[in-house]
Amino acid sequence: MDTTSQVGAVPTEAAQGFLRADFPWYTLDDGWTGPRWLGTVGTSPDGEVDYGSLGHGDEPVRSYLAQDPAEGRRFAVVVTVASRPQRRLKDGTGLLEATSVASAAWLAGSGLLTATEQVPMERALRQEWLDQQTTLAWDLADAIDGPGWTSLTLPVNGTPQAFRYRESEYGWVLAGDAPGVHLGAYGRGVSAYGLGFTTVTDLSVFNGE
User: Fold this and answer.
1) The whole model's pTM is what?
2) Cα separations in angstroms, 9 against 16, 19, 203
3) 66 and which of 56, 71, 145, 185 could share a cystine (Cβ 3.0–4.6 Å)?
């Protein structure tokens, strides 16, 4: 990855994780004209960057049912997951599972949960709800070719690409493949049907840069 064209000569701390990746990042294409922001990156136990997210629109708040519709948030987050085979940790202590479209689906689903909180409730009930939803998200990701998902075709670098897609009361999640990576995305208040994806060429367009 060309770090100079990605972010300029002096990258900020927020961009360091993105710049350490050995795979391309994906974002919404030029059809998206709203704000863009840096999400987070995830690393393996040996410190290798394995995935990360880039956000579009309003940064989500932990509420999915605003009392005032004007308080609703519109966002779409793109999750890029490195395409990696099963591999041994560098220190030889264990194996890391291969990544897959299901990995992207799980990360997108859990990302949507992170951006979502049930209406105010007692802490134990909220945790029970979160545990149930997390288990459901994992089960759905593990059965991404099953009836819980539908097919959706969206452009990736201008080429039509098949994705698996599902909606819930909290928002939508999709996952598929792109050159060198697995792609996931999730959002709320933004239709997934008109989206397109492209490789990132300049991280400076994301706020925080």
Assistant:
1) 0.84
2) 12, 12, 12
3) 71
